[in-house]
Amino acid sequence: GSRPTDEELSFLEYMLTGTEALHYAVRRYTSPEEQAFFPERLPSDKVLEELEFPEVLSPIGGAADVNFNPILLRKYIDVIVPAITHSGDDEQHGSTALADIAVLQALSRRVHYGKFVAESKYLADPGGYQRLVDAGDADGVMKLLTNEAVEAKVLRRARLKAATYGTEPLLAELPPIESKTEETSIVAAAAASAVVAAIEALGDDSKTEKKVCPKTVESVYRDIIIPLTKDIEVAYLFRRCGKEPPPEYAPDRMSKDVKEINGAANGSA
Q1: Which of 33, 69, 88, 140 is the most exposed place for a label (fewest CB within 10 A)?
Q2: SS3 letters for the chain?
Q3: What digits encode the pLDDT tens for the residues 180-226?
């Protein structure tokens, strides 16, 4: 499509394009781990000279250039944000956009690591993937690359981290440390806090107030991050094997669309 003007961009998109232009000038997007959300709006000049990176990803069929940021941005705005926030306007537009950009860039790196995973899987079984791609069997490719045991561990870890970092530590109300004995008590309290958070995360944590609901974070991983990473892997593998991926693996959609996730804004049930 045609390049949108500044007036056609949302406030977040305007901030994001400006941030990407600045980061591009200092060679952020020369790294194969980084993908721009608006590559067509990047400037032509860099302040720093480009670095040489080892060629880990394959250039065959444009596999290394697979970029699913269009659908990631849309799902972040339409699905993730409503699941973790309350509706309304706190008038903190600038700082909110900066936080959004940091999260979006982190999510982009996370899902596009799928290209590196796909390359590793291809090298482990090039014949298997080539046969499936030649047959146009995207479902077969998806099945071959899926590791349900690893996915389960990722979901468990995401929920545990959300419970641990999204809860005030038990030691927050303790008095100042004045001796080695009290220091030991503080360490013990911190450990207890982590244990409590872990137990709550694995059980019914809806009654405990948190900055964000661990179940919601788990849902974000289960319904968006992991599926999108796998879509990227399928698209990469098709291109790696010399064929265009099927339409459902285009960068502006998810192969299995998600309209909403089980959100609990700010830890409320």
Answers
A1: 88
A2: CCCCCHHHCCHHHHHHHHHHHHHHHCCHHHCCCCCCCCHHHCCCCCCCCCCCCCCCCCCHHHHHHCCCHHHHHHHHHHHHHHHHCCCCCCCCHHHHHHHHHHHHHHHHHHHHHHHHHHHHHHHHCHHHHHHHHHCCCHHHHHHHHCCHHHHHHHHHHHHHHHHHHCCCCHHHHCCCCCCHHHHHHHHHHHHHHHHHHHHHHHCCCCCCCCCCCHHHHHHHHHHHHHHHHHHHHHHHHHHHCCCCCCHHHCCCCCCCCCCCCCCCHHHCC
A3: 565 566 666 666 665 665 565 556 555 556 678 889 999 999 999 99
